Amino acid sequence: MPYEYLKSNIILNCKVSEDIFEMKVEFKSNTEPGQFFMLRKNDSPTFLSRPLSVYYADKETISFLYQVKGKGTQLFSLMNPGEKIDIMGPLGNSFSTAFCGKKTAVISGGIGIAPMVYLAQELLKRDNSVDFYCGFKGMPYCTDILDKKIKVFVSSQEGVAGHHGLITEIFNPSAYENVMTCGPVPMMKIVANMCKEKNIPCQVSMEQHMACGMGACLVCTCETEHGMKRVCKDGPVFDGKELIMND
Question: From its phi and psi, is residue 230 left (phi > 0), alpha (psi between -120 and 50) or beta?
Fold first, then answer.
């Protein structure tokens, strides 16, 4: 799918949790679950764009969920509706959702929930039965927007909601025919290994620091059984059996 580069109008930019924001912009094109965009404030003192996964998309708009962690995302959080932001995308591959009628587990950790919300909603459209596992350090966020047909399992390391502990502690891969995950590498490594032991297909969305987003700079490489791969160009979605993930 060809990508576009344009100055997009911000429709919404609001705080949804302590340091989590949702930004909705105008974008008239198709995107697939798992793809991402590179975003940058035009007059930003930071040189590089920031990669953000697609949180929601329709024919007129696209939304991103982002965590304020550095100067770039701090500047994003201060932008207002009506302002323009530079976006480039959609980039990367996507989750494979071609199958139908499957029992699928979607597993996220922290801000890794961003692409998984869009994925879960799209899976429902393809008549999949979806269970959503989402792990957080503290209070959960963005679980209330999921379709009521999706069964949601929540964990919190601080014990403020759902299971007190890690989301992998309440996940059983044997109950599913397909598993898809995004979040911290240690969590995804556990999920991928659990699925590998049970011979359950597992798709993993890697999150890496990126500079160009198009595979030219080689900043975002990850290790696989077939050598080093570029997360932005060869991914971000990989077969869990092929990835070699170091904590």
Answer: beta
* Same domain, yes or no: 232 and 112: yes
Lowest mean pLDDT among 69-78, 99-108, 151-160: 99-108
Both tokens of 194, joined, read 């659990």
CA distance 44 to 41: 5
DSSP string, 114-134: HHHHHHHHHHHHTT-EEEEEE
pTM: 0.92
Hey, what are 206's tokens? 């890697």
Query: Does residue 132 sit in the same domain as residue 206?
Result: yes
Q: Residue 179's domain is classified under what CATH number?
A: 3.40.50.80
For residue 52, the surrounding DSSP H or E stretch is strand 50-57
Count up the domains in the chain and report the number: 2
On whether the CB atoms of residues 131 and 151 are closer than 8 A, the answer is yes
Sheet holding 202-205, edge to edge: 163-164, 151-156, 129-136, 103-109, 178-182, 202-205, 237-239
Tell me: the pLDDT tens digits for 195-222?
Answer: 999 999 999 999 877 667 777 777 788 8
Q: Residue 100: which pLDDT band, with cuts at 50, 70 and 90?
A: low
Are 167 and 113 within 8 A, CB to CB?
no
- Are 51 and 38 within 8 A, CB to CB? yes
Amino acid at 143: T
